[in-house]
Design a protein that fits this description.
Blueprint: H1 6-13, H2 34-45, E1 50-57, E2 62-68, E3 73-78, H3 90-105, E4 109-114, H4 115-120, H5 122-131
Parallel strand pairs: 3-4
Antiparallel strand pairs: 1-2, 2-3
Length: about 130
């Protein structure tokens, strides 16, 4: 039986290390959630004009899901509220508070709805009452 140093063993048997693949950071197109898609249908069916992904704060590049044109009303459809999603975990919740407070300070009213509230029709009924 012969002995071999660790350096000799690695030189003879070790596989060469490959460089890790570099991740590309190409921004993907935003996917519309089920709640947002439903609200789009509701707004269109009642002839309510809106903008999606409305950038209300140029400094922070914050966006609201919907802006009702001709008003200072922003609509947010909150997803993942039962699945421990971004909106219900500490860091995401605090970031949302900062975003919504900024919108309010800029003169917007922010209305938030869950996907279930949108699908049930509650959201569109409240929106219709808001805009008269």
């Amino acid at each position: 039986m012969t002995s071999m140093s660790l350096a000799d063993y690695k030189a003879k048997f070790a596989k060469p290390r490959r460089k890790p693949k570099r991740r590309s950071f190409v921004k993907k197109e935003r996917v519309v959630s089920e709640g947002e898609a439903t609200l789009i249908q509701h707004l269109k069916s009642y002839g309510i004009k809106f903008e999606q992904e409305f950038q209300f704060n140029k400094d922070r590049k914050w966006r609201a899901d919907f802006h009702l044109i001709g008003t200072n009303i922003l609509i947010e459809v909150e997803g993942g509220i039962w699945s421990n999603g971004r909106h219900t975990r500490g860091k995401g919740y605090i970031a949302d508070m900062e975003k919504y407070n900024s919108a309010t300070a800029l003169g917007y009213s922010v209305y938030r709805y869950s996907t279930e509230q949108v699908k049930s029709g509650l959201a569109i009924e409240e929106i219709r009452r808001l805009i008269g």
